Amino acid sequence: MATAFAPATAVTMGDPAGIGIEITLKAWAQREDTGLGAFFLIADADTVRGEAASIGVDAPVASIENPDAAPAAFTDALPVLHQPLPGSINAGTPNPAHAPAILGAIETATTLTTEGRTDALVTNPIHKETLIQAGFRFSGHTDYLGHLAGGVSSVMMLVSQDLRVVPATVHTGLREAIDSLTPDLLVECGKTTAQSLREDFGISSPRIVMAGLNPHAGEGGVFGFEEKLIIGPAIERLRAEGITVRGPFAADTLFHDAARATYDAAICMYHDQALIPIKTLDFAHAVNTTLGLPFVRTSPDHGTALDIAGTNRADPSSLIEAIRLAQKMAHNRRRPA
Questions:
Q1: What class, spelled out in words, does domain 162-281 have in CATH?
Q2: Most Cβ neighbours (<10 Å): which of 62, 138, 222, 266?
């Protein structure tokens, strides 16, 4: 009698010149010690086999034709859904010729996850500059996945054991980030964050804080007016919708132990205001996840690490945590309301 399996998690290859394939092989090799559920990689199967042999990771590769075969294969081999990769691979040097295959893996994973044939999507790091050279018009995975999902508004959250942070503005210059802050942007960000904390993280009554933009959160207008004109009004609108939000708070006092104990997520005004504290607290295990999508998506909280690609020095910890979080979030979404 056939054994029924739950859907496996889809993992994309990322840029093949980076460390994505290496850390996926290592994550599979550590599957029993880490207790990960079944996952499969969307990549060129021969490339994955060559990488395993090159870095000496004991990870047999099982080519699969559809994700339904992944759970059964996962016990004895890393399941790979073949995505042909044209052109040569030079570790550490991205090749624009690989762009269609890199994006194709993301599109395939998105389609499979949307159709319910996988339980979640985990993306390995891409090299944005190379993709943009090949015609990619998005700032990164977050925008691209929102586009693939039908143009939904998506929000980035970084997650570790001790902190969840949401940058209201992401991959944009600091001057442009400040200029783009509006009450509407922060309200949408707050609503999406609250909904995800309930549905994906199982927090029935989420507590959110907002950081100020200026030193000392503006100090009553002495150091800037964004807190009074933008952030404060957004907080009041969110409270009017029944969401527990406090702030704006000075960012330099928002991330110590006692402060973190008072909230479930902090919304920050720009990229580094959010990422510096979480990477300082837990550089190796932090996870990037995209909120607001109709499916679960996570990613390691690091880049392609081109400087160590092909050297067998890449740490798979963040990818392992990304897979673990994706599977937990997918489980939470399946729970009865």
A1: alpha beta
A2: 266
